[in-house]
DNA sequence: AATTTTGTTGACCGGTTGGTCAGGTTGTGG
DNA sequence: CCACAACCTGACCAACCGGTCAACAAAATT
């Protein structure tokens, strides 16, 4: 048996497939339940029911409720950080910040449950991911602040406090996920349409970009 | 006994005083515990300990955990609505929206626990205050949107979607309460100083006001 | 085909939680 | 000073929750 065949077998083996699929189903159910009930309000039984598995099976893949929760939070954090790719290779603030806002709005739309879990985690004092905040997030923030400061120094945008600007972007974009229920209620109880999402994105972009002196 | 004497006695009676004071202490403790642990994670025992009362005493004043929670949520909702007073008798958007942002930032600073409870309630689908969203909040929103629209029609500000503008103000201001822990962590673990709160308020105000074409 | 590893699950358990209640204490009106 | 109402609380309970485990099934390995 050569190396390729072995790798192929490992990746395609039924065992591996079962594990991957079950973990996926469990994490998806957990994300939803944690988002809708909070960590304390969520029960392993509820997650199991939503995943269509016996509760004992959950504990086979994830030792404890906290382990499962940690994985859910880490998943959304990864997505969150990736949105920064828009930021990096941008020529100036109009392009960079505009693309970042669009990326974050897209995340709010496609991962509303993950966003809520993250918000909930932070609101409760980040008991699980405090170390991420102090290391990865801090470095990430410092890096983007430096980019914004360079744009300001180059006269490409108004001298707005870069940190506060990032907070404003985070707040406005995540609002559409975290407070989605309120927004839906004020929208006659109906989810936002494609057009409404585009309008919201455009409004956020235009107000912020004009607010930092990039648009006229 | 005349009417005045009776009212005076009722308001000053020790019984009334005891009830009012105990309810106040319990609500204050409950707000903090619900904010830090969520509804599901909060326990009556924890609230009782923080209030310095036996658990059974809590159930004397508030029949169920849900009753207590409902009162906490209603309290913050009242404060929330009152911030709109800044909006109403304003000559134009610079004054009205500026004052509203300041009022909401002040609420985020002075009632961080209440803000978090409100956010948590909405994030979880507003199980307790859904009717408020559909009645009071909707009317409130429609009213302010009309005011903003009049300003736009009068040429006092750029034609920004009034609804999205309100959402942006809610999001940016409440962010400082709901994500206060994250902001504090990124601030070297220290709470914002007076000066930093003023800076944050000014940045939010200037970016939004410039963003809607009110500032140059 | 035998053996080992991995996956599956109903039944069970100790600990915690929201809520109750009986019996006591304190304040109030007559 | 008496009777009634409001307030207080230790002890208790049924329900539920996270987690365990033994016994079994299925797949992989030899």
Task: Offer a concise description of the structure.
Two copies of one chain form a homodimer. Chain A has 216 residues and is an all-alpha fold.
Draw up the topology in text.
The structure is a homodimer of 216-residue chains.
Chain A: H1 3-12, H2 14-41, H3 44-51, H4 55-61, H5 65-82, H6 85-88, H7 93-110, H8 112-123, H9 130-153, H10 162-178, H11 180-186, H12 194-211
Helix pairs in contact in A: 2-3, 2-5, 2-8, 5-8, 7-10, 7-12, 8-10
Chain A binds a DNA duplex (30 and 30 nucleotides) through helix 2 and helix 4.
Overall body shape of chain A: globular
Structural class based on helices, strands and sheet pairing of chain A: mainly alpha
At CATH level 3, the topology of the largest domain in chain A is Tetracycline Repressor, domain 2
Strand content of chain A: under 5%
Distance between the termini of chain A: 67 Å
Task: Please give the oligomerization state of what you see.
Answer: homodimer
Instruction: Please provide the count of β strands of chain A.
Output: 0
Q: Residue share in helices of chain A?
A: over 70%
Radius of gyration of chain A: 21 Å
Name given to the CATH architecture of the largest domain in chain A: Orthogonal Bundle
What is the name of the CATH superfamily of the largest domain in chain A? Answer: Tetracycline Repressor, domain 2
> Mean of the pLDDT scores of chain A?
93
List low-pLDDT spans of chain A. 1-11
How many discrete structural domains of chain A? 2
